[in-house]
Amino acid sequence: MISKHLVKYVLTAAARDKLMMTLVLMILMGAAVAVFMGSASVNEQGSFALVFGAGGLRFLGVTGVILFCCFYIRRCFENKEVEFLLSRPISRLCFLFSHAAAFSLLAFLIALAITGTVFMLGRPDLPGLAVWGASLAVEFSIMAVAALFFSMVLSSAAGSALATLGFYALSRMVGVLLGIMSLPPGNWFFAVLGSVMKMISIIIPRLDMMGQTTWLVYGVEGSGGVKFMPDAGASAIAMLEHLGLTGFIALQGVVFVSLLLAAASYDFMRKQF
User: What is the value of pTM for the model shown?
Assistant: First the structure.
């Protein structure tokens, strides 16, 4: 179902576009800015640089993954590379899964580079850094497949990138929104909106409960886990309590990558060339 040659083809395109080189330079620049901002802090300079750098590099990494995946897929459609590749002995599902595997591999490499940079920024809690890096790799993989889905559905590279970034923003904010909606509603509109948000939270990855920068400073247990809001999604918190943090992160990756791949496969199989 996955073609090694097609995966290599995508990785070669990433190397040709100098994706990794550009991101490495941007990561180093972001780390330098974090160190500078940390040196300007009155106290806890190391922790400030660590948290500031980790948060900024996380957003930089996911933006790079989304932009490359969206613009690469749309360029393949515009240059007729998709028709050419499908004229080879490659099925549509093999084409889709191979691209998902290549994008996930790129996401893992970018997450690894960011984790290594964060390690050099200060003295992070090592178990917390390991969990943070693993959750970062899962998060980037989910967003890479989400970018693949939106670039298959939408005909514009900029539109698919914006849609994926909107999906990412919602995934990062859903816990806060659920916490607000858990308050007593002032009228029927907010009551209905709260019920809708609870349903949406079931099909949205809970990225707000992953990759928390407090793990780097205090460790996973010392930071109080991921329950920064007691009402930020009862179903997600229940899964976390039953599966543990690593199980929750792994389940998020498997479930949402599978859902996005299934949706992309359904749309791609119906396309006419």
Answer: 0.88
